[in-house]
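So, who can interpret the following?
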Amino acid sequence: MVLVIDAQIAGISGDMLLSSLVSIGANKSKVIDGVYSVEEYLKGSKIVKLDFDKVVKHGIEATHLILETSEDHHERKGIEIQECILSTSDKIGLSEKAKVFAKESIRSLLHAESKIHGEPLEAVHFHEASSIDTAIDIIGSAIALDDLKLFSDEIVSTPVAVGSGTLTFSHGTTSNPASAILEIFRDSDIVIYGGRVKEELTTPTGASLLVNLSDRCSEFYPTMKIKSIGYGAGNKDFDSFSNVLKIVKGESTDEFQLDTVQILETNLDDVSGETVGHMIDKLIANGAKDVTVTSAITKKGRPTNLVSIICDPSVTNRLMSILVSETGTLGVRIRSSSRYVVPRIIVSVPILLQEKSFIVKCKIVKHGETIKHFKVESDEVKSIAESLSLSFKAASDLISGEVKRRLDIK
């Protein structure tokens, strides 16, 4: 099964995710009962009212979290919220996967604030996130995900609308998205863009939940049979669109997966072969999926090398900087491309060759439970060839035969 979290129009917040999970079928009573346990570990905070109701947002009926709280604290150490979440997770008996999800979600918030303010984790103070709301969103979402057994599914995020303009909070006025949002999304696979309004669309809690839940980000829905759809309403109302987070659960119907990559290209007509070779090694080491160099003829009959790089969007800027600094090129062409890939997994296989034990990493492709294809990583073959004083081809043949035997491939 696969779950798509569609945040490309209205962004995502903690209450929107929680509401969408209830909308798609999570046990409402179970969520509410579990969430009330949060009160025990946050002194001075009280849940006055907690429920879910149906509302209509710009023509779409969605589930909305009704929450009223009483707070004696306007500021708390982030570590207090974390301890509350960990203690509540244990008390209500969340699964291990749900506990890890809840723990990492609050840690993402803590690390973001720590990085921004240059403070150790134990000294970080939450302002907007100091209320019981943050714990409710994280614990409630963990309960709902557990109840729906979604931790065993593939979870795909669309690119996320974060809004634009400015926003004012405890540290004054800042441009939107705020630093916490950027820090949480940094180094993740999630793609963000401004969106349709000059307001905050994605909150730090929503961002933290998403980066710790999604397996990958894609502009396109995977090939799937739709089974259920959930709509979680946000608090704001907008004139041009529904402030609703949409989640879609379905059954994958294809052996291929669709994702999005970026392709970087440039022409090099005045660099040496040694420079090109070094460039390829450095690009691969920094995240390029593949690098191709093709000979061509350009204007005035000049011979040139066409360099083409395939990469994830998250490493585009890094690879572009390497390309410019290593070659001196004055321009790089960039385009996005969708691609279908065959799902594969990497396994470690113990083998015995010439009375020596090795563990080799293999990419394998399965059809059901049957292994259709496998490939041993070339670096593994090279290392074993050197260890046994064999040619690359001889080592490759021996390793392949032993891997087939170990994996029972006919």
